[in-house]
Write a structure and sequence with these properties.
The protein is an alpha/beta fold. The protein has helices at 6-12, 31-42, 70-86, 139-148, 157-163, 179-202; strands at residues 19-27, 47-50, 54-55, 58-59, 90-92, 99-104, 116-122, 125-135, 166-169. The strands form two sheets. Strands 1, 2, 5, 6, 7, 8 and 9 form a seven-stranded mixed sheet that branches. It has a two-stranded antiparallel sheet with strand order 3-4. Helix 2 packs across helix 3 and helix 2 packs parallel to helix 6. The relative contact order is 0.20.
Length: 211
């Protein structure tokens, strides 16, 4: 279910054939990740959905749902998969994120916000994105990621990450949240990302980077 990336490649003007540019990268193709991707699609924002975030050689997985919520979650997941297939969303189930890097500066081939850009490393190459959504990540893995990105000393690390364009949906302590709460978080994050994307595109300073 991979949408043609012709527009993405043309807009990015990248020289490296193994580097792609997209508005958002969603890490985790379970229910939460698909909910974010679907809402972004409705908002007109392109995204790439990866299988998970590798940790010590293994990808992070969605937690097992509470048995009482299983029928609701199963039906919602079926609907989200149907939407993803019908709208040809870029879902890469066989590809995990091997690492995240926060780039600074304007020497990268795409519009940037306040000089920030995310680089997501995969076995297939590098994805450059304005925003990243991390789902299905446990607290220990999340704590390591926050430290590696240099946000551990921030008074409110999650707020600092969100300000830099990294959204946590169903991650950390929220990994076991009820289905409806996860969907609410996904929708709110997608709407925020869509607003950021619209602001980037309308900024006179950023128009010089577009094709």
């Amino acid at each position: 279910m991979r949408r043609s990336s012709t527009n993405r490649r043309a807009r990015g003007q990248q020289a490296d054939a193994h580097t792609e540019v997209t508005a958002a990268v969603i890490i985790g193709c379970g229910l939460t990740g698909l909910a974010v991707a679907s809402e972004l699609s409705r908002q007109g924002v392109e995204s790439v959905v990866l299988n998970g975030l590798e940790c010590d050689g293994a990808s992070s997985l969605q937690p097992a749902p509470d048995p009482g919520s299983l029928p609701e979650r199963t039906e919602l997941l079926r609907l989200l998969r149907g939407y993803a297939a019908g709208h040809e969303l870029d879902i890469r189930r066989g590809t995990a994120a091997r690492g995240l890097d926060l780039m600074r500066g304007t020497g990268i081939p795409a519009p940037v916000s306040r000089g920030l850009k995310w680089a997501i490393n995969t076995k297939e190459g590098v994805l450059l994105a304005d925003t990243v959504v991390l789902t299905g990540c446990g607290q220990p893995q999340l704590a390591r990621l926050i430290r590696s990105l240099g946000f551990a000393s921030a008074p409110q690390p999650r707020s600092a990450l969100r300000g830099a364009g990294l959204y946590l949906v169903g991650a950390g302590e929220a990994i076991s949240a009820p289905t409806r709460e996860l969907v609410r978080q996904a929708k709110r994050a997608a709407q925020d990302i869509a607003a950021r994307n619209a602001a980037h595109l309308s900024s006179p300073r950023l128009r010089t980077f577009t094709a």
